[in-house]
Design goal:
Elements (H helix, E strand, L loop, with lengths): L4 E3 L1 H7 L4 H8 L3 H8 L7 H11 L3 H4 E3 L4 E4 L9 E6 L2 E6 L23 E6 L4 H10 L3 E6 L2 H9 L5 E4 L5 H12 L3 E15 L10 H6 L4 E4 L4 H12 L11 E3 L2 H9 L5 E5 H6 L3 E15 L6 H10 L2 H8 L4 E2 L6 E3 L2
Parallel strand pairs: 3-5, 6-7, 6-8, 10-11, 10-12
Antiparallel strand pairs: 1-2, 4-5, 8-13, 9-12, 9-13, 9-14, 9-15
Helix pairs in contact: 1-13, 2-3, 2-4
């Protein structure tokens, strides 16, 4: 008995906004043939498969799979968790253990209802507190996003291991600095998509005395610090501030650790710390005083072969849309000029 052939033809076609007629014209096939292949009623000939792949600008292997896609192991340690989301990444079907996200709860794929399409699911690791705007826009285009909270270095490592599609990074003042960091950590074969330049600085609790008005005065004062993990852009900034002031830039030099920008701000707001480095948006959302230290480029790193994926096309369309730019620019500390620009890391 021959194995069934599964295809992502409809996903690829709809991601480009094409009708079956338009795809048929581009591939030099009949509409009825495209329809029959798309629905699985007809197994395509080698020539037809190659014509469809060429018209869509993808590899034949990205369109057609022999047999049921094999379920891989968990994307990373599930730590006893059994609930998951599914997504195809770099040709593999993967399970992603459920964890708390900045965008709130999402229906899991094991919940018994209608599961999300793993071929229309974008997996992103990063620390942008405004990532909800991006996920909302992609949802409106029929794509689900799984935005996992990770530091810049941790996100790049997941990308290197082909466990995510995108790694959000801010490891320098501009995109060329981010590109240099990618070259050092990952080597060739990657690109950057620019999101924005944001303000990173010191969030300060209202209880810090009015005489401590400057960054240097605050850093030198005896206050409790909210830190970030090694490898994060905020930790690099915080370590430099403390080193310049003669304070220990070591894990022991921080009173508490936070997992992302929002967590730093919430730790200060709730009284567990007096100051910490985060982006302006997180600080102002928590009602904290904010002092700008620097402006940084926040970019999404991806493997160049991902450029042929319909999820990349949808992401690019969102980043270059006026609606997304206006929404992100309305938030404190975001400069969206150049959003959607592709930057080479070579």
């Amino acid at each position: 008995m021959s194995e069934a052939i599964f295809n992502s033809l409809k996903v690829q076609r709809e991601a480009r906004g094409w009708s079956q007629d338009e795809l048929a014209t581009r591939a030099q096939l009949s509409r009825s043939e495209v329809s029959a292949i798309e629905t699985g009623r007809v197994t395509p000939s080698t020539a037809a498969a190659m014509k469809l792949a060429r018209a869509l600008g993808v590899l034949v292997e990205q369109l057609f799979t022999l047999g049921e896609p094999e379920e891989s192991a968990w994307s990373w340690d599930a730590a006893g968790r059994r609930h998951f989301w599914r997504a195809s990444v770099a040709g593999r079907m993967m399970r992603f253990p459920v964890e708390r996200m900045a965008t709130g709860a999402q229906v899991t794929d094991d919940a018994g209802g209608e599961a999300g399409d793993p071929h229309r699911t974008l997996v992103l690791a990063g620390c942008d507190p405004a990532v909800g705007l991006l996920t909302s826009e992609l949802s409106g285009r029929g794509f689900r996003t799984l935005p996992f909270t990770r530091s810049s270095s941790a996100a790049l490592e997941l990308l290197r291991e082909k466990r995510v599609h995108l790694a959000g990074i801010h490891l320098g003042k501009n995109s060329s600095d981010n590109a240099a960091a990618v070259r050092r950590k990952l080597g060739a074969g990657y690109g950057l998509l620019h999101i924005a330049r944001w303000e990173e600085g010191l969030a300060v609790a209202p209880r810090v005395t009015a005489t401590e008005r400057t960054i240097d005065a605050i850093v030198r004062s005896r206050i409790r610090w909210a830190g970030r993990e090694e490898g994060s852009g905020a930790r690099r900034c915080s370590d430099q501030l403390r080193a310049d002031a003669g304070r220990r830039a070591t894990p022991e030099g921080y009173d508490r650790a936070a997992r992302d920008h929002d967590a730093v701000a919430e730790m200060i707001r709730s009284g567990w710390a007096d100051a910490g480095v985060c982006v302006r948006y997180a600080a102002e959302s928590a009602g904290l005083r904010f002092l700008t230290v620097q402006r940084e480029a926040y970019d999404l790193c991806y493997a160049v072969e991902f450029e042929n994926d319909p999820r990349f096309a949808a992401l690019l369309a969102v980043l270059r849309s006026r609606r997304f730019a206006c929404s992100l620019a309305a938030l404190p500390g975001y400069d969206v000029r150049g959003a959607g620009e592709i930057i080479s890391t070579s």
